[in-house]
Structures are given as structure tokens and as C-alpha cells.
Amino acid sequence: MAYFWYKAFHLIGIVVWFAGLFYLVRLFVYHAEASQETEPAQTILKNQYQIMEKRLYNIITTPGMVVTVAMAIGLLTTEPEVLKSGWMHAKLGFVLVLLAYHFYCGRLMRRLASGDCQWTGQQFRALNEAPTVLLVAIVLLAVFKNSLPTDITAWGIFALVIAMAASIQLYAKKRKRDKEKRLAEASSATSDEMTEQVSA
């Protein structure tokens, strides 16, 4: 019975942890892009994002991580023999990378708050794809264990994940270009109006 309790809360922790990680870096994107706004909007937005990031990291994301890890340890105590399996070694390796990512996000959050972070919104969008790749790898290892498929279906799924990440990046670039175009058109229209007023 302990195994099922550990597993249930382990899955709950995973959902909470990943939801927090995905949204946290999305806030970093908005925080970085707030620098393009004029005052006082820039300061207001940055302060608001800083509050949201801190609350998300401390109240949702980190507790989700703690529950996930604690319940995983509980699961391993009920099945210690799995620690001898190669798939578990690989899975734990990906989890260690995910933990490093989590704490690195905390560091980026503090740098954004202090104004020392020079990352662009585009760079944060790319960073936001990392937990997706880790999630796919961890889930596949947990489900298939030592019989992880390497056939065309597996490669197709991997290609689909890469395509999704690439499409998100392309959409972000298109949206940025459209915004710059709109700003340029607005600036040009304002300039024309001022020229007409001076001429009149």
C-alpha cells in the first residue's frame, strides 16, 4: 500500500513541478521583453513579473520538486532492486540535469530581479524547451524501462517533439517581427503627422 501512496504523490509532484518550470521561464520571457517598453510601463511590468516569479518559484515549483524527490526516494525504498537497472541510472541522470535546471532558473530569477541578467526573450524561449525534452526522456524511461523502443515510431515521436519546439521558436520570431513592423509603421505615421502640422 505504501508503494501506491508514494507513486500517487510522486505523480502529483511531477505535474506541479513541471507546470511551475514551464510557466516560470515563460515569465522570464515577458520580464526580459518588458525592457522594450517605455516608462513607467517598464518598471511596473518588471516589478509585477518579479513578484509573480518569486511566488511561483517558492510556493509552487520548489515544493513540487521536493514532493517529487521525496516520493521518489519512498518508491525506491519499496523497490531497491531497481537501482541496479541501467534504465534507472539513465533516468536518475536526467533527473539530476532537471534539478540543475531548476536551481539555475532560481539563479536567473535573482539576476532578473537585480537587473544583472542580459538574456533576451528569445534566449529564454529556447531555454524553456529544455524541460520538455527532459520530461519526454524521463517518462519514456519510466514506461519502457530496459525495452525502450528505437524503431521508426520512437524516432518519429522524437522528431515531433523537436518540430514542436522549432515551431514555437519560429512563431516567437514572427511575432517579434510583426511587433517591430507595427512600431515602425506607428512611428512613421506619427512622423508624417508632425511633418504635415509643421507644413500647415
UniProtKB/TrEMBL annotation:
Comp. bias regions, Polar residues: 187-200
Catalytic activity: protoporphyrinogen IX + 3 A = protoporphyrin IX + 3 AH2
EC number(s) given by UniProt: 1.3.99.-
Family assignment from sequence similarity: Belongs to the HemJ family.
Binding partners and assembly: Homodimer.
Localization in the cell: Cell membrane
Region (Disordered): 176-200
Protein name from the UniProt record: Protoporphyrinogen IX oxidase
Major localization listed first in the record, in broad terms: membrane
Record membrane topology: Multi-pass membrane protein
UniProt organism field: Coleofasciculus chthonoplastes PCC 7420
Listed transmembrane segments: 6-25, 56-76, 88-105, 126-146, 152-172
Function: Catalyzes the oxidation of protoporphyrinogen IX to protoporphyrin IX.
Alphabetical UniProt keywords: Cell membrane, Heme, Iron, Membrane, Metal-binding, Oxidoreductase, Transmembrane, Transmembrane helix
HAMAP family reported for this sequence: HemJ (MF_02239)
PANTHER family associated with the record: PROTOPORPHYRINOGEN IX OXIDASE, UPF0093 MEMBRANE PROTEIN SLR1790
Molecular function per GO: metal ion binding; protoporphyrinogen oxidase activity
Residues at which heme binds: H10, K91
Superkingdom of the organism of origin: Bacteria
Pfam families: UPF0093 (PF03653)
GO terms, biological process: protoporphyrinogen IX biosynthetic process
Entry note: cofactor: Binds 1 heme b (iron(II)-protoporphyrin IX) group per subunit.
GO cellular component, one term: plasma membrane
Pathway: Porphyrin-containing compound metabolism; protoporphyrin-IX biosynthesis; protoporphyrin-IX from protoporphyrinogen-IX: step 1/1
Cofactors (names): heme b
